[in-house]
Amino acid sequence: MKSILVVMRSPSLLLISLCIFFIGLGYALTMPFMPLFGVERVGMSPLSLGIFLAIGSLSGIIVSTLLSRLSDRMPVRKWIIIGSSVSASVGYVCYANTDSYVVLMLVSCTFIALSFSAFPQLFALAREVVEREASEDVTIIMAILRALVSLAWILGPVMASFTIYRFSYTGLFLVVSFMYMLVAIFVLVIRVHEIREPSNEAEPLTDSRRSFKHLLMAPQVVFSLLAFMAFELANTMGAIVTPLYVTQELDGGKLDVGLISGVNAALQVPSMIVLGILAKRFGSIPVMQSAGLFGIAYFILFWFTNSEWQIIAIQIFSAIFIAIVLGVGMTFFQDLVPKMTGTATTLYNNANIIGSMAGGLLAGAVGNYLGFKAVIASSAVLAFLGFALLIASNANKKTFRHMEGDTYEG
To answer: Which letter, b or e, does each residue of 268-283 get, where b requires 16 or more Cβ atoms within 10 Å of its Cβ?
Structure first.
């Protein structure tokens, strides 16, 4: 309760909370319906759709990584968020007014790719504000902010369905464009005193590359990134197989699928807050390691289900698994690299994106050749792999700091 009051009493945190919710809502409005948009309006084939989504995501990962390094070296985080949000707004206006595959691909690789920085940079900015105004509640407040994204995903798909029905995809993209413009305006009025000071001399490019390479080669960072990719692979494969398993194996209906998704999303919000409190008390590492255990338990129980109500009953395990990975996980990475918040948050976000992309491909391949049960079993194995990698990560525990153009272990 105290942490919520801190957010409500801080104008900066309150505006950041609204921005995070709007961006989460933007994702929830567009991501589930982009495949339908590509097929129904643009006429993409499954192959061209896959290429479009993959190239757009890879472009966003590259751009956000480059901008994250800049944000940690110079006091420009606020302006990166504003620029990314404006870019997203322009990009979705373009989406609303064209059905050309080539134009959409260009927009995806430029304007939308630039928008990828807004989400991780907002959380990096939030971390800096929280450390200044309520440092003892960092883990809890960050978990609350991340829970806003889950709340947006409860509302978003329903809102998107209604908007598309009344105003088509054009209306949907214009609504999302408007929300991103609001984010840019809100961030513009936030008073932020960024703690980084620009160097008197520009950091040599070779030093910057050496710093980033040193960070990426550190065992704890490597194991942690791989663990998060494994968790997101398991989560994505589970999300893909659930509606297919319910409708094709259990003869359930769309209502059952919607109920399962709704229960899971609703359980994630309080779970993130409670887990943030536990992470504050016991540390983020043991909470993170428990994510794998909840994931393993969920997929093993999922394997033995034979009715829709049984799947609904075990959603608490899935919700806790997702809440730890998406909620506590961000703070875990920020704590790992405390002086490179933007880079740490972006690496975490990119690991989730890569895991999600690969999860879709792997679920399709395994499900096509081995069946739905094999997808569930593979998800359990990946959850165990993530758990093992985090154990190995803790065995190589180090803290990384960024000083004078290089990265140091300490």
So the answer is: bbebbbebbebbbeee
